[in-house]
Input
Amino acid sequence: MAQQHLDPTDSTAGSSPELPTALEQGGAPTADALACYLRAQATEFLRALRLHRETGGSGHGTEESVDAARALRRSARRISGSVHTFRPLLEEAWSAELCPELAWLSGTLAREHACQACLERLLLALHRLSGTAVLPAQPTEEVPGGRAVDRGNLTVGAAKAGALLERQLTLARTRAHSTALQALGSARFHAVADKVAVLASDVPLTPTAATADLTPLAAAARERLTDAVAALPLVTAGSPYNAEALVHGLSPDPSPQDAPWHQVRLLLRLHRYAREVLDGADSPVIARLLAAGQALDRHRDASEAAAAAASAARTPRIAPATAYALGVLHADQRHEVEAARFAFQQSWLKQAVGAG
Amino acid sequence: MAQQHLDPTDSTAGSSPELPTALEQGGAPTADALACYLRAQATEFLRALRLHRETGGSGHGTEESVDAARALRRSARRISGSVHTFRPLLEEAWSAELCPELAWLSGTLAREHACQACLERLLLALHRLSGTAVLPAQPTEEVPGGRAVDRGNLTVGAAKAGALLERQLTLARTRAHSTALQALGSARFHAVADKVAVLASDVPLTPTAATADLTPLAAAARERLTDAVAALPLVTAGSPYNAEALVHGLSPDPSPQDAPWHQVRLLLRLHRYAREVLDGADSPVIARLLAAGQALDRHRDASEAAAAAASAARTPRIAPATAYALGVLHADQRHEVEAARFAFQQSWLKQAVGAG
Output
């Protein structure tokens, strides 16, 4: 079965496939554009999968295997995203089966990368916050009872906080890595890969799809995005230093205010994939959408890093100096959350995304 | 001697004395304007001193005695500030003697108010950070060894941090109050008050002052300000969320970067007093200078509040949850420092202070 995924004829598809766009073909974009996009992404998925296996996906990430895993997630997201947006044009049973499986796969593969990125973000922030003298952190024993603070040296806390975060997030990453490896070896994954291999040559369009126009479905995806953006507190976000992201920063669950932004991030991605289907990946619209999306990626990353800092502060028997450093770090990352909202607001104002 | 300060004829001077301005008098502003300003401020000083004594300045602050203390500091700053700027027009020995004594007095009187304002700022921030459920803080015993954190409830730390700050800053305020009372009863103070009482009727101008123009001395004060502002990192400050104020936020002494801003705050005040001498207190220039100055006041207040939070975190045997909350609070106030710099940059750009 694996042979099927490793078909060398797949290698013609690059990571930025140059598709004939609807405009190049003339007239309104049709289901042909969708089929072409899905075939290219499926081919890219198979290429990435082959690369991942060749570059030793079983060990801890070499640069190549990390790239391959990223390419796998990338194509999996594009397939499930475009299937989601243009679902009425595709066989219903097939879509209903494929979408959740691709979501499971890209979610599982993303976790290891997310742990690593979160750790790097937090260590970089600690480095910035403590000056050059403190890091790299070396694992040290925690001293209960606050002797570190008694010494009057809060900088000790930065190194200890770094070591604590490194332990916790490395453990989480290792677990995520094992889970991803198990997933890639599972019958469930092989079933997904088989489906994608078929998709690379044969897109299950509905009988009526041939004469359908993609535009209304893409417009609906755009409308879901603009509605969600309209519901965001963009006026507040556009006023710098509004201190909104740290409101309730000490309450047990400060993240509910982040959820609408995370949702917009997902809807922006779906909109972007729909534009890729219609205009091709090299369209200037895509570049502008990417910029806005990067602000929301940063929002998500900072939100998760802040949560990780708060979570580490709940570790039993840590020294007060460690807890203090984690508090500073938490607030710093919530500050980053606020900065990312500001950046998104600016980027959203600048581009006429709504009209794109 | 005290009788002299309580002369009821002084009561005609309000807190915003309406002086004949240089423009109303026509021509370049002369030493007359300076003499007039100094007499009015000296009169105001004596009025505030009398009020302070009448409203029981010896007890802990009623609203009236707080107002009186503020008015005392206000006029003391104006006298010493304008004497400083226009010193070549005043008797040298007299100025050399008066200025440091007025600085001592206003510094001593300011400390109690500063402690109270710092506590209020920090409790307000804790309230904002923890939602409405946690505060008002009630003094609780610290639990060494992090049992509070073991319960997984970081919000407990907010209440404990509030109680700790309240204890420490209330103690500091009480000490500052005693020091201020001692100062007001001291021979040193009576000597200052006598000098100011004389100033209310007799300004010791130099023999050549009568024909001097105030403009070059005021321009020199403005130039010292614009030079200091030019040395500030205003481009960084004008780019929101630059994270500059929290750089080295975990190092033992993060405040050196604040010093140039504090210096600009003082120079802006000297410039403003010089403009009051030249244009009167109701000039639109003054209002614009006040707005810029308020941003720098906020900068100073947030800087001191951040330092107080960091200092409280060095208290021995505090619970990790308390230390965590103080860390969040510290970062929040450094964020406020950054916000104040941004506000100053915006305000400075808007007004042509340099030309004012």
Q: What stands out?
A: The mean pLDDT of chain B is 85. The domain at 29-200+214-355 of chain B is CATH 1.40.20.10 (CHAD domain). Chain B touches chain A through 55 residues (CB under 8 Å). Chain B is about 70% helix and 0% strand.
